[in-house]
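stage 2 :: seqdesign
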């Protein structure tokens, strides 16, 4: 009898701790991002009708929402169980963009990283080479720019993302995903594009898997132009899918010390794993506790 009571109390204590910890777990992903000092981080979890995507960093650089229907807000986000939501982009061409064209540029020789999560349904209507995120190539091209695109017809129709830089002289350097991770499966996928000035490289990760490397990339003031930072399209190429947890960093996220040699496990994979965390709801945990209580009562009889 005493042993049963002790077991019950231990199990119930564990349940209580899990319930109490559930809100803290909800901050696991954003804590991982903010812990790496992004220069901007938009969770894209605003309620329907919101005019701006708020920046979760101390820099407080919001982006403007334009052209979104009420149903485009509040889409289920990356982290299961996290109340923070995502945004849906459609062929109606809603946009998320910076009101200040001088924001989100990088000085020549500055490493930087672009990170986001993407969800694309089979049969999506995205334009060929649809812009997901870009700075410097919205309705016109202004070099040097950076851009991440989605192509629905590539890799045997499973979709492709890339990270693309063009310098002032018009030279292009980019890496595209290889198809090792199918993208149009209506699941969330983690994308990180990196310019590493120390190694003169562009690298791309999808779900923490290195997709490739472009070498000999010249130092340039990428994004230092008169065009907008924009999410959802570039030029006339429109993205049809969902985007969540968008962040920019003034470092190579897989080479944060800038010395050389990549270590994706340090930060890229850490963010990916944090995004895959499933957060149990407190009500679910309480039901587990009640189930334990019922089991122990039956054992006592």
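stage 2 :: out
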């Amino acid at each position: 009898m005493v042993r049963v009571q002790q077991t019950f109390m231990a199990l119930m204590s564990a349940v209580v701790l899990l319930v109490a910890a559930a809100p803290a777990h909800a901050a696991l992903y954003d804590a991982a991002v903010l812990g790496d000092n992004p220069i901007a981080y938009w969770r894209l979890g605003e309620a329907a009708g919101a005019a701006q995507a708020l920046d979760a960093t101390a820099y407080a650089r919001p982006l403007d929402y334009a052209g979104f229907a009420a149903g485009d807000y509040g889409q289920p986000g990356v982290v299961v169980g996290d109340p923070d939501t995502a945004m849906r982009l459609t062929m109606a061409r809603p946009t998320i963009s910076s009101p200040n064209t001088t924001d989100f540029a990088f000085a020549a020789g500055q490493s930087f990283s672009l990170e986001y999560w993407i969800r694309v349904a089979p049969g999506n209507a995205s334009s060929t080479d649809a812009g997901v995120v870009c700075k410097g190539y919205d309705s016109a091209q202004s070099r040097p720019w950076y851009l991440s695109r989605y192509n629905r017809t590539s890799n045997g129709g499973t979709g492709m993302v890339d990270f693309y830089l063009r310098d002032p002289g018009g030279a292009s350097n980019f890496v595209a995903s290889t198809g090792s991770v199918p993208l149009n499966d209506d699941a969330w996928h983690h994308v990180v594009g990196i310019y590493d000035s120390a190694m003169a490289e562009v690298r791309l990760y999808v779900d923490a898997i290195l997709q490739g490397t472009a070498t000999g990339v010249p130092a340039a003031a990428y994004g230092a132009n008169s065009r907008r930072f924009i999410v959802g399209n570039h030029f006339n190429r429109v993205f049809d899918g969902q985007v969540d947890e968008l962040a920019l960093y003034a470092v190579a996220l897989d080479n944060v010390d800038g010395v050389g040699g990549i270590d994706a496990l340090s930060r890229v994979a850490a963010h990916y794993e944090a995004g895959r965390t499933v957060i149990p709801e407190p009500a679910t945990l309480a039901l587990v506790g009640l189930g334990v209580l019922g089991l122990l009562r039956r054992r006592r009889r």
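stage 3 :: structure notes
- The CA atoms of residues 166 and 172 lie 4 Å apart.
- The chain has one domain: 28-278.
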